[in-house]
Prior knowledge:
The N and C termini lie far apart (65 Å). It contains 6 helices and no strands. The chain is mainly α. Helix 1 (2-29) packs antiparallel against helix 2 (33-59), helix 1 (2-29) packs parallel to helix 3 and helix 3 (66-86) runs antiparallel to helix 4 (93-119). It has one domain (2-157): Ferritin.
Amino acid sequence: MDQELERYLNDHLAGSSGALLLIDEIAEKSDHPDARIFFHKLRKKVEADRALLGELQKAIDKEPSAILKAAGNIAARMGGLKLMWEGIEPGSLGMFEALEMLALGVQGKRLLWRVLQEIQPWFPEWSGYDFADLELEAIRQRDEVEAWRIKAARESLISEERRQPQG
């Protein structure tokens, strides 16, 4: 059973690697100064979550698996290839899809914290962690990413012709 937990935590570590790559690309390509600031702050939060996952693994005497981590990093990069091919430019479908992928990843992080809260009683080594608070933070992050995703949807999915005032 512990192997399953180890794999689950490693999968989330790998997912966070992909998220960091995506956040960097979104921040770099964004033409909104507020977006760049938001995504740089989000990057720091994701880095802190990665460190926390490592702490959780060590607390139950599990080191992050180098093999699983490498496999996850490769999968994360493969998932981002389509976006990199299309380009993540302001107003493009690629930007919208990158934000959608990121929103899904943050939702996955929320679900991670939720499940760890549920199994925490069986892991006394995790007694000092507030997974409910981490879940609430993930919800806030998801909602903020969602606001940028909706903005990108308007910019990429509505033609210039339709944006012109009717009348």
